[in-house]
Records
---
Amino acid sequence: MTQVLDASAFFAEIPVESPAYTTPSVVGELGDLHAKCRFEALAATGLQVREPCGEDRARVEAAAVRTGDAGVLSATDLDILALALELSAVLVTDDFAVQNVAHRLGIKTQSIRQRPARAIRWRYRCSGCGRYWREPGDCPVCGAPIKRKLK
């Protein structure tokens, strides 16, 4: 079973199956000495660092917009999702927004320390007047911030 590792996989002592992959942006996020050592140990046993293709990245971005998670996903999150999609791999992450988009794309996920996320849909509601909108930002009616709410 091919795995794609999020940064959280390097902070935990979980077993990693080969072949395993991660992205250069994940490696760049590893600031903790323990996580860097874990990365080096896994790299010595076959972990590969690979950039996802642009075509899959575009599919992930479109799926994130449809699930309502586009505003909370980082570029690194989009990269690991695109790589997992490209490799038909299991995505190892504890990030609920990443798991939500993965469910939408049919990517299998494996949680590390958190319970697995269930697929959810978001709504956007004005914190001032209570009206619902299609996207976050400022309410065109009252000017208050529009916030993401669970549907």
---
Amino acid sequence: MLLPEGRAAPPGHLAWKGHDSKDGAVYLVQCDSGRGGVTFVPNGQDGPAAPTIDPETVARQAAASMRLDGPAVASPRAAGTYVVGMPMWMWATPSKTTFGPATASATAGGVTVTATAKVTTVRWAMGDGTTVTCHGTPYRKSQEVTSSPDCGHLYERPSSEQPGGRYRGTATAAWTVTWTAPALNHGGTFTETRATGFTAAVHEVQVVN
């Protein structure tokens, strides 16, 4: 709509883009969200085009409404004690909020977008300069001292040399969000990350002769 009388953009205002009232008019564009602005439209045009809806922006709004948490780290355990040179198993306990899938929808400007999120990778920064990318397999006592089949690490130095006497690491989940906007025949993906910290006390075995 045109700016109401008495509220017209003054000559020289950026909205005129170097023009004046002989060349066109300045319109007030107002969105359903309440946000808006002013824009110049040359003579001969009917008015400003309707704001374009970016479906990925709407998809991100849907993702923001989901509960997407970092990994629920089961191992390393803060209460556990680990040994230099012995294989450590890492894994996280799966749940809907830590692995997905989670689904939500959002609507803007008459466009509805549905998004589904699930964890596709977990990256473990072990606190000693190494990283491992894996989901993890829970350890069972019957497996004794063996290496994890898919998600393990071996510390080569004790954590006594670290601040607080512990290695401090981070498990970071990459949530892949897949979205669709049927009304626009459009879709895509993007990634959200969530992180959880962990600590590990690693000791040397004292050999007594």
---
Amino acid sequence: MSKSNRNLGLDPETQYVEINRNLATYEFPWDINQALSFALFRTYAVPSIGRLLGRTGAFTEETQKRYDDTAILLEVPLLEGFDSENGKAAVRRINQMHRMYDISNEDFVYVLSTFVVVPNRWIQQFGWRRLTDAELLATVRYYQALGRHMGIKDIPATYAEFETLMDGYEDAHFAFDPDARRVADATLDLLASFYPSFAKPVLDVFSRALMDDALLTAFRLRDPGPRIRAVSERALKLRARLVALLPPRRKPRHVFDMPRIRSYPNGFDIRELGTFVPGCPVHRAAGPA
């Protein structure tokens, strides 16, 4: 039995928002934040996604703001529910931004699959405990709901289907693109900026040590080697063992309260987050709603 599990007894079919809220703010706040950041990073290796982000300039010229906006807009429905006023406003902003660009449904489904699969795989490997079957099902139900609110079609029905789709899509589409590489470099620089400057070389190697061969190849990043990979993984597993010994978290840990969110020291208006003017020639008036 784990030291703490706020989700015991909750129904993953009807209480999936609460279950995911507990996972993200009480059970695994650091792990899920890291994993979702890594999930988005993986999507850049699909050229149709990474190239678009590179050409808009949002992830290379305003990396911190784009990071903050994405994290906040994804967190609001989780904290307040899809049917809340703020939840609706956050999803509306996400959809308005996506409508500016020609994004395929296949890319949307792939990105959604990374939100389901990557955090589970991270927690399996580096979490202080594993997700229960009910928690994993709740994760599937939560992101299915998010996908429906975004107008995404052909959403996988099970975790196994999400996993198969993600792995297959990456096998078929991961490839090098110079614009995508610029987005990846800007993101790695941002992540390193959250720590003292002298740690940047270590963090660069540590980040690459957590990437699989396919991701390193797609970005043409140097493999740090098996020794550094093993040391990095051991460090995360040691952290997990230490976290397991800590008392249960009493207060929720929210993304917008984390020091790495820097763009809005005086608060924010959900309706003003994100981008409003197309930043690349790939533009259209219709899309998921």
---
Amino acid sequence: MALLVSLGSALAAPSALAQGQKLQRFEVRSAYIEPAEGVYELNATLNFDLPDGARAAIREGVPLTLHLEIVVKRQRNYWLDETVATLDQHYELAYRALSERYLVRNLNSGEQASYATLDAALDALRVIKGLPMLDQALVSPKRRHEISIRGNIDVRTMPDALRFVLFWSDDWRQRSEWYTWSPQL
């Protein structure tokens, strides 16, 4: 009888996740493209939160990388959709102890910006503005196209020793679902 009572109370007890840990979400909230000087530029808003452990690691100098995967397809009625273009965009967030600033760097273009607080740097990562992603000559205005975007925060940029220690932790890896829309080109 005591075994049943303890088993029942263990099943009824809230999990560690429900007690104190917040479920981490990562999603693309919105995305659209705009024509600009012969290319289409991507504007997107991301929604993600970092767990306390990841925030602490950044403050200690561990860089986190945001990857954006972008796929443009031409929709076809009687055949498989054709991939017109793919783009893999990388951003890095790192703390610079000497200047006591947080640096957000576009690893593809080298463009960078400095922020006084971690929250300000994260807010900058959450808003993608004017990212050149597709030459207008690659699309035909008479055809239907579909654009998909997905983001993830990757741990592969961590030092090997820290990556080994955090091998079992999922808190460091977040991936959004694909966000897909059909723009009017």
